[in-house]
Design brief:
The complex is a heterodimer of chains A (152) and B (94). Chain A is α/β, with parallel strands linked by helices. Chain A is built from 3 helices and 9 strands, in the order βαβββαβαββββ. In chain A, 21% of the residues lie in helices and 36% in strands. Chain A starts with 11 loop residues before the first strand and ends in a 7-residue tail after the last strand. The model of chain A has no long low-confidence stretch (mean pLDDT 92). With 94 residues, chain B is α+β, with helices and mostly antiparallel strands. Chain B has one helix spanning 29-39, and strands at 2-7, 21-26, 58-62, 65-66, 82-87, 90-91. A 5-stranded mixed beta sheet of chain B has the order 2-1-5-3-4, covered by helices on one side. In chain B, β3 and β4 form a beta hairpin. The mean pLDDT of chain B is 93. Classes of the chains: A alpha/beta (152), B alpha+beta (94). Chains A and B meet through β4, α2, β5 and α3 of A and β5 and β6 of B. β4 of chain A pairs antiparallel with β6 (90-91) of chain B.
Chain lengths: 152, 94
């Protein structure tokens, strides 16, 4: 496995079908934030996303601009992923009516070695998506590439 | 005393030499975490605060149950066998 702690992230490989599902979840949740996990594995040249999950947002008092992913969801997804030889490689969440850039609260809560995929969504639909990687206490953008569907 | 598997999340594997699981012998969750620290010095500072309690941005599960529901880290492992360190995942648009 390549080093997941590198300051220079490998591209995040997100199959089109998974991206389309994410965008549908983002539209359905608007104007609330929604979130979930990215499951896959680190390969030598990309972080390959094999599955995405939709989690409960527990930030009930500020659903328009906060998310808190249900830790029981994380545990359950992680259990299955490990059994399949995969791991939780990152997190996705939406920014309703805000750009797909990490906020100060995103930075304060971020973990190293996770990809943070943010989907910007407005009333009329998804406006963009970007992935971010924490390196040296700051986020750097992680390229998103679209390759073949997961088929191994 | 039973064998316990401690599941290490990806963000903490830099402190465990890349290990996704660490196996220890322990009676309680706290004892298991101490043994994790002995194997991989420095990792526990990411998990517990100065009082030796879980940091606010870390969740610890014994089996499928959050240790908060079991009275904390002194919960007996018994035959459960697996402790999971789960990072709190949060943030927001503004």
């Amino acid at each position: 496995m390549a080093n997941p702690d590198s300051d220079t992230p490998r591209p995040l490989s997100l199959p089109r079908a998974l991206r389309e599902r994410l965008e549908a979840w983002a539209r359905e949740a608007h104007p609330h934030e929604t979130c979930g996990l990215l499951v896959g594995r680190h390969e030598h040249d990309v972080t390959q996303v094999a599955r995405i999950t939709l989690a409960r947002n527990l930030a009930n008092e500020r659903l328009a601009d906060r998310y808190a992913l249900d830790p029981e969801h994380f545990l359950a997804v992680d259990t299955v992923a490990r059994g399949d030889g995969l791991e939780v490689v990152g997190v996705w969440h939406t920014h309703p009516d805000h750009p797909a850039r990490p906020s100060a609260i995103d930075l304060a809560a971020a973990w190293e070695s996770f990809s943070y995929l943010i989907v910007s969504v407005a009333r009329d639909g998804v406006e963009g998506a970007a992935a971010w990687w924490l390196a040296g206490g700051a986020f750097v953008e992680q390229p998103i590439v679209e390759v073949r569907p997961w088929a191994r | 005393m039973g064998q316990v598997t401690i599941r290490i999340p990806t963000p903490l594997r830099g402190a465990t030499g890349g290990a996704a699981e660490v196996h220890v012998e322990a009676v309680t969750v706290r004892e298991a975490l101490r043994q994790l620290e002995q194997r991989h010095p420095g990792v526990l500072a990411r998990v517990l605060d100065d009082r030796g309690e879980p940091r606010s941005f870390v969740n610890i599960f014994l089996g499928d149950t959050h240790v908060k529901k079991l009275g904390g880290l002194d919960a007996a492992v018994n035959g459960t066998g697996t402790i999971a360190i789960v990072p709190a995942v949060a943030g927001g648009a503004s």
